[in-house]
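Why this split exists: single-chain examples teach little about how molecules sit against one another. For that reason, every record in the complexes split bundles all components of an assembly together and asks for one structure covering all of them. Below is a record exactly as it appears in the raw files.
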Amino acid sequence: MSPIQKLGQVFDAVQKAKAGATAFCTNFFPVELKLQGWIDHGELFGELRNGAAFFFRKDGDFWHYYFCAADAVILQREIAALPGLKTEPVITDLVGNESTLNHLLSVLERVGFRQYTRLQRMARIGRPESTTGCSQIVFAEKADCRAVMDLIENSFDRYGEQLPMLYEIESAIESRQILVASHDDELAGLLFFETQGFASVVRFWAVAEKFRALKVGSALMQHYFKTQNSVRRFTLWVNAKNENAIQKYQHYGYASDGLVDHILVNEMIRT
Amino acid sequence: MKSPVEILKEIRPEFDFTASSDFIEDGMLDSFDMVTFVSTLDKTYGISIQGVDIVPENFKNLQTIEALLRKSGVQL
């Protein structure tokens, strides 16, 4: 595998895997801006093999594997031959409707992955009729960066929920995509979102344990809806086993839209 | 036979696709929607859109989608 230095290398590799594909399969749905960030920070590597392109992203002490393959047979043959699969901690995932994923799941299980967790996507159309802003909720500032990172790391699963790098948090703060609530100079809660045109995704919504009785989470969500005036479609991914979170999102009008994300890990990750 | 805009409306009824010149920039279609859209176009028009053509530029607006369909052999 070799480091990716330009976006064009990614597109070329994907095109090569797609050329002549009869049953193209992939778990690689990159947003260009995010991809550029991975490249700029030296996190992205690639390998073009016979009928398949693989991308590897370094995330702390483990790797995310992404694939683009002409079909599932080629995927199984080529991914099994990747040397890192036996020696490095690796995570991969499969996104789609549950019924369409079974075949690829079994392919990945045959080469040594096991299911770790499952996320489900929830969506709501339009923002609530009446939302109230909250004066205690503000956009995060540069000085909040470390506290934001700590709260996210303490609240979410690093293998299952694609935690952001510090530079992503800095960039999100600059783009006014992180709302925070503070109490006594401490970060009490945050809502990290990404809005693109008429669509907005909640990436992380968390309240520090000792502030959980203060309705901080509710204030953050209300404020978020209030600030996203032009958004028509709100989505998020949530751990399918986290019933408490799912109930909260349902309370705000989100409902499962049928899309799931199976997170798989290899034998080098022991949990 | 359903038109591309009717298919888009079924996938994302909340958006007005006739009013946008860039579905991707406006957040109206994400990568997952594109997969659903391509598969519905294939079934509706009896074609097989090539993998190499499944790129955001071809799904930017109704004009680029129609150009892609023509390239795939559909007479509009």
